[in-house]
Specification:
About 30% of the residues lie in helices and about 30% in strands. It is α/β, with parallel strands linked by helices and about 260 residues long. The longest helix is centred in the N-terminal third of the chain and has 17 residues. It binds uridine-5'-diphosphate and manganese (II) ion.
Length: about 260
């Protein structure tokens, strides 16, 4: 009965496409063990998002180097683009309650209510964002140049603005899972050292962004896939969920050949 809806062209347009959800990951087992069953429940039960053809991809950064969210997201995209039409980049620590994962022809921010930290509604573009795959290619993906916490989302929003892309602001309600803060030295206090350094790099890049965005992103991405394994929940292997381990190198050091 519900599947009949997909014969309506307007509904097929938004709900009939393949969505890959990319979950950047390292050392957050407690969060992942909550997110995956929650996603399975959400996409089976949600009144309308249950129509979606969705797959889940946990992308784990190998090694002990600083985490690089933009680069890990780009790896996820490259590993899944052949089997998806649009892509959602999703933090491991936000569980959807009321949300909208339907197709966007441009770019969309999914989260508003339930954010862990106060944010500016106009500029916030983190935690869960989504792109049509062709649009994502045009943006050259996320920047790879921010190691440690911060500024990759700001640069992505800048890339969208420069490309004249309409960014949808969907105001979904999510539940955030608590964790130690990497971005601020104390709650509401100054930025962490990573945060300061990345913000300075962003400010430096901002003036020339229309050129710089062409040279850092999908087109210079280097990584090595070390492992890909299916994911099981309660002993049952899921057909549409995979865990990948990627070597992305470290600052100034490419991945091992
Ligand atoms: N992340 C991770 N391990 C890390 C750092 C980051 O798995 O050591 C992933 C995870 O998906 C997380 C996202 O990157 O939700 C954003 O990082 P974080 O939660 O620290 O950022 P914040 O909540 O301060 O925006
Ligand atoms: Mn977080």
């Amino acid at each position: 009965m519900l599947d009949d809806l997909l014969s309506v062209p307007e509904i097929a347009d938004r709900y009939g496409r393949r969505l890959a959800i990319i979950i950047p990951y390292r050392d957050r087992a407690e969060h992942l063990s909550q997110l995956l069953p929650h996603f399975a429940m959400y996409f089976a039960q949600d009144k309308i998002d249950r129509l979606l053809n969705v797959s889940f991809h946990v992308i784990e950064q190998a090694g002990k180097g600083p985490f690089n969210l933009g680069k890990v997201r780009n790896c996820g995209y490259v590993l899944t683009r052949d089997t998806s039409d649009y892509t959602c980049f999703h933090d491991v620590d936000y569980l959807p309650i009321w949300a909208d994962y339907s197709y966007t022809p441009t770019a969309a921010r999914l989260i508003w209510h339930g954010l862990r930290l106060p944010e500016d509604p106009e500029f916030f573009f983190g935690a869960a964002n989504m792109f049509d795959n062709q649009v994502f290619e045009r943006l050259n993906g996320f920047p790879n140049c921010y190691w440690g916490w911060g500024s990759e989302d700001q640069e992505m929003l800048a890339r969208c603005i420069i490309t004249d892309l309409a960014v949808e602001r969907r105001d979904g309600t999510f539940r955030s899972l608590p964790h130690a803060d990497r971005g601020y030295k104390s709650p509401g206090g100054p930025l962490s050292d990573d945060g300061e350094r990345n913000l300075a790099l962003f400010n430096e890049r901002a003036e020339e962004m229309h050129n710089l965005m062409k040279d850092d992103g999908l087109n210079n991405l280097e990584f090595k896939l070390l492992r890909k394994a299916p994911i099981a929940l309660q002993g049952a292997v899921l057909k549409n969920a995979f865990h990948y381990l990627v070597d992305i190198g470290e600052p100034g050091k490419p991945p091992e050949a």
